[in-house]
Amino acid sequence: MNWIQSLILGLIQGLTEFLPVSSSGHIELGKALLGVNIEENLLFTVILHTATVLSTLVVFRKDLAAIFKGLFNFKWNESYDFTIKIILSMIPAAIAGLLWENQIESLFTGNILFVGSMLIGTSLVLALTTMVRHKGKEINYFRAFIIGLAQAVAILPGLSRSGATIATGLYLGIDKDKVTRFSFLMVIIPILGASFLSLIKADETFTGNIALLPLVIGFLAAFVSGWFACRWMISIVKRGKLIYFSAYCLAAGLIAIIFGLV
User: Phi and psi of 244, rounded to 5°?
Assistant: First the structure.
């Protein structure tokens, strides 16, 4: 992998991790078009995911600081309540990962037809949000778990995690700002957890044959684009502009299917 390929993949990872267009689907498309296989270099994959997590931490640093400050009061408060909701939201994805790890991994093998179909599914999920009447409901434990179910389903390449979780929250009548904040914060631990498990199971493919420069460029590209996409997505949800991404996912899905057939 050269530095141009790592730059492109880093930009794809950072932008699509937070925009409702499926990072996994676009990474699969990017690998196919660039002719690279980042599964052969686990270190590069972990670095890209770490960069996007760090960009989330930067964007929500004030929220996270307030949560940790509340936790150190060692008494029941809003921080403990929010933390439990985050934990509840992670349970479905954790169960799916443990029970069907091999089946899920088998889908990340450049199956462009499958990715295209899932992108069209993402388009439909986003389009339906235009029919939702926003009721300004709170995120209770039940709704947090349902949003977690959406995150678990969005493990599939081509289904957008942020799109699925935010759309599900909107379907449940939750306030736009609150569900967007929850969607971004709930993914921090799963991403770090998945990277940690990958490192534990790492073999000789961990470092692969990638040089230091592509690693640094990939990290910086994913971090900067992730920071930009995270802030942009917050603004997009507030203005109710998800329909544009629905159209994009539909077009990308159709192109992927045509590319896969050809």
Answer: -65, -40
Residues 4-17 have pLDDT tens digits of: 999 999 999 999 88
pTM score:
0.88
Interatomic CA distance for residues 213 and 172, integer angstroms: 45
Alpha helices per DSSP H over 22-77: 23-34, 42-59, 61-71
Please name the residue that has the structure tokens 């995150």.
151
Residue range 175-187, pLDDT digits in tens: 989 999 999 999 8
The Cβ of residue 108 has, within 10 Å, a number of other Cβ atoms equal to: 18
Strand pairing partners for 174? 137
d(CA 255, CA 261): 10
Q: Which two tokens stand for residue 167?
A: 């759309």
Task: Please give the tally of structural domains in the chain.
Answer: 1
CB 261 within 8 A of CB 93: no
3-state secondary structure of 74: coil
- 240: left (phi > 0), else alpha (psi -120 to 50), else beta? left
Structural domain harbouring 221: 3-33+41-261
| Residue whose C-alpha is closest to residue 176's, from 234, 122, 126 | 234
Is 89 in contact with 148 (CB distance < 8 Å)? yes
